[in-house]
Automatic annotation (TrEMBL):
The gene coding this protein: CG15336
MF GO annotations: DNA-binding transcription factor activity, RNA polymerase II-specific; zinc ion binding
Keyword Metal-binding: yes
Domain C2H2-type: 12-39, 40-62, 72-99, 100-127
SMART domains: ZnF_C2H2
Biased composition (Basic residues): 117-127
A GO CC annotation given for this chain: nucleus
Subcellular location field: Nucleus
Protein name, as recorded: CG15336-PA
Composition bias type Basic and acidic residues, residue spans: 128-137
Length: 137
C-alpha cells in the first residue's frame, strides 16, 4: 500500500504566508513576525523580542565589558577577549616571526589585518600628497 505523502509533510501552516512546520513552537514564533508581538522585553533598555533566546543573546551585550573580556584569556600575556575568535586572531602576535613586511618602510606585522591597515595608510598618504600637488598647480 503506498504511503501517504502528506503524512511526513509539516502539518502546521502560517495563515499569513503559508510557512509550514511540524513543530508548534516554531509556528508560534514565526507568526510573531507577522503580528509584531514581542513578549520578551529587556529590563535594561527598550528592546523587545519575539523569542526568549533572542532576549538571552541580547542580555549578554549588557554585561560589563570587563566581565565579557575575561572569558577567553591568552596564555602568553593574560589579555582577555570576549570571544574565542578574537583570541584566535590575537595569537599570531606571540609568534616569533612577523610574516607581513611592508615594502615601503621598515615595519612588519604578525597579522594580515594590521598589515592591510598599514598599506591603506601608505595609500592614503600618497593620495593626500597628490591632491596637494594638484591644488598647488
Amino acid at each position: 500500500m503506498p504511503k501517504d505523502a502528506s503524512a511526513d509533510s509539516p502539518r502546521l501552516m502560517c495563515e499569513f504566508c503559508g510557512y509550514r512546520t511540524s513543530i508548534h513552537w516554531n509556528l508560534k514564533i514565526h507568526r510573531r513576525r507577522h503580528t509584531g508581538e514581542k513578549p520578551f522585553s529587556c529590563d535594561r533598555c527598550q528592546a523587545s523580542f519575539a523569542a526568549r533566546y533572542q532576549l538571552t543573546t541580547h542580555l549578554e551585550r549588557h554585561q560589563d565589558i570587563g566581565e565579557r573580556r575575561r572569558r577567553h584569556i591568552c596564555t602568553d600575556c593574560n589579555l582577555g577577549f570576549s570571544s574565542s575568535r578574537a583570541l584566535y586572531h590575537h595569537r599570531p602576535l606571540h609568534e616569533d616571526g612577523k610574516r607581513y613586511k611592508c615594502s615601503q618602510c621598515d615595519k612588519s606585522f604578525a597579522q594580515a589585518a594590521g598589515y592591510a591597515q598599514h598599506k591603506r595608510w601608505h595609500r592614503q598618504k600618497r593620495q593626500r600628497a597628490t591632491e596637494i600637488k594638484k591644488n598647488v598647480v
